[in-house]
Structures
1.
Amino acid sequence: MLKALSQFRLTLSANSEVRPGDGGTETFTEQETNGYVLFRANCNSCHRAPLFTTGAFANNGLAVDTTYRDAGRMKITGEPADSLKFKIPTLRNIEFSFPYMHDGRFKSLRNVLDHYAEGLLHSTMLASELRDGVVLSKDERTDLMAFLLTLSDREFCFNPDHAFPRE
Ligand code: HEC
């Protein structure tokens, strides 16, 4: 079973080597290029290429969720400094992985961008990268979204070989 699983994993990494967003920016539209500039200025410190995550934990300014009351990493470490820190997720294929955040509170990417631009909770635990706030006009949010959509790999996501086995 291990051999079968590792063979399968190898086909995944082979497939995912070539993806938009991997420096293939010369094919970007003006809007996507503009979005990429905004991304590098505001998001790149945590969501870094090639995986669009540093793998670290961060407090990205979410209010505690009312259902699970999930304190994030603090639950594991017991350190108040880890309060509401969550693992920084990849943004690859982000178009298809809604709803967003650990509790799925945001249904759309537009909601996520509105959060960063307007809804950041400024506590002492907020990540230093976000302390100065994120300034994004509505048009800039649309451009940033156009960039995020370039991280989709439809061929990979909808490859019938990766579908659930049929009965
Ligand atoms: C300080 C680090 C940090 C910065 C800067 C940051 N993020 Fe995040 N991001 C996070 C963390 C941590 C989460 C996960 C929070 C959770 O699980 O509740 C997240 C989640 C997301 C998600 C949801 C992913 C998913 O699968 O649910 C999106 C989309 C996203 N960020 C986009 C952005 C964009 C766009 C920017 C720039 C405007 C940005 N982030 C800036 C840390 C950061």
Note: The chain has a mean pLDDT of 90.
2.
Amino acid sequence: PGFTPSAERGRTLFTGSPGGGKPDSPSCTSCHGGDPRQGGHSRAGKPIAPLAPSVVPTRLTDAADVAKWLRRNCAEVLGRDCTAAEKADLVAFLISQ
Ligand code: HEC
């Protein structure tokens, strides 16, 4: 209730190193890079397409896929699930890119 997603908070979480996760993936940017309009690399070196829907229109269109990857990636970076508020902020940030 009363919650409004914030792209700015999403950016801070995406680019920050919140701690609690795996040492070799301290940040979303560890794999996705600092700019969602650019691609990234998995730890195995596999290219990851940009997350920004403005660049890759199929991004964030499959809710089950987004939920699956956020569960996995939040565990990597934070060592826990992201809260509903954090997920909303992250998606708001990515959609704004
Ligand atoms: C260990 C590497 C790694 C880290 C760290 C990581 N990701 Fe990912 N992420 C991936 C991979 C691999 C995929 C799936 C491949 C793809 O969608 O191109 C993915 C997919 C996604 C997707 C799915 C997009 C879609 O259209 O379905 C979102 C959203 C996402 N990541 C956001 C994040 C956020 C937010 C963080 C930080 C909390 C994060 N990722 C951290 C590797 C990572």
Note: The mean pLDDT is 97.
